[in-house]
Specification:
heterodimer, A: 111 residues, mainly beta, seven-stranded mixed β-sheet, four-stranded antiparallel β-sheet, 0% helix, globular, B: 114 residues, six-stranded mixed β-sheet, five-stranded mixed β-sheet
Chain lengths: 111, 114
């Protein structure tokens, strides 16, 4: 059963704590992406990776970090430096030039 | 029913009617466009795509039209069903921004009235 998985679906953290969101894909895609979505808004790109061991900042990378040690995995860490971390986080993957496939998302709430 | 995604973010249609969702894209260099459907609390789902060398592409009950002259994209849904209720996003890809990086519009919420 191929696809993208994100875990957990819901995540709660206290302010000041770092938290890591998981994203795994078994589609053999080279490129992976992290987006943030706020209520009633579109998707904003946080980080993307076109190949293992390489990644680039997107439009709103401040306060986030990523790693790409394996082709299948692209975890996102939301650090305490992120001013407004509460949001819906979406991971996606793609073959270059083709559509992006999205995971089910993780809803992070920081209080 | 018809809406412009960025100016009228909601569209209500009767079940069985056709829906038209519009999107104005920003970059004349964009060469690849995608429509996604997002249900509440879920990730976006691919509907249909079109490349800039085409004006029209059809799928099952959906048609995408591309007008490069005015930088306009539309999604037509035939015989709209309650299951079509969702937020619809258009996304554009511009080659110079990197392989397959997409810029998403704000989205249009489609509500189907039974």
């Amino acid at each position: 059963d191929g696809g993208i998985t994100q875990s957990p679906k819901y995540l709660f953290r206290k302010e000041g704590q770092n938290v890591t969101l998981s994203c795994e894909q078994n589609l053999n895609h080279d490129a992976m992406y992290w987006y943030r979505q706020d209520p009633g808004q579109g998707l904003r790109l946080i980080y993307y990776s076109q190949i293992v061991n390489d990644f680039q900042k997107g439009d709103i990378a401040e306060g986030y970090s990523v790693s790409r040690e394996k082709k299948e995995s692209f975890p996102l860490t939301v650090t305490s430096a992120q001013k407004n971390p509460t949001a819906f986080y979406l991971c996606a993957s793609s073959t270059p030039g083709q559509e992006q496939y999205f995971g089910p998302g993780t809803r992070l709430t920081v209080t | 029913g018809e809406s412009v995604g960025l100016h009228l973010p909601t569209l209500s249609v009767q079940e069985g009617d056709n829906s038209i969702i519009n999107c104005a894209y920003s970059n004349s260099a964009s060469d690849y466009f995608i429509w996604y459907k997002q249900e509440s609390g879920k990730g976006p789902q691919f509907i249909i795509d079109i490349r800039s060398n085409m004006d029209k592409r059809q799928g099952q009950r959906v048609t995408v039209l591309l007008n490069k002259t005015v930088k306009h994209l539309s999604l037509q849904i035939a015989a709209t069903q309650p299951g079509d209720s969702a937020v619809y996003f258009c996304a554009e890809n511009t080659p110079q921004t990197g392989a397959n990086n997409l810029f998403f519009g704000t989205g249009t919420r489609l509500t189907v009235i039974p």
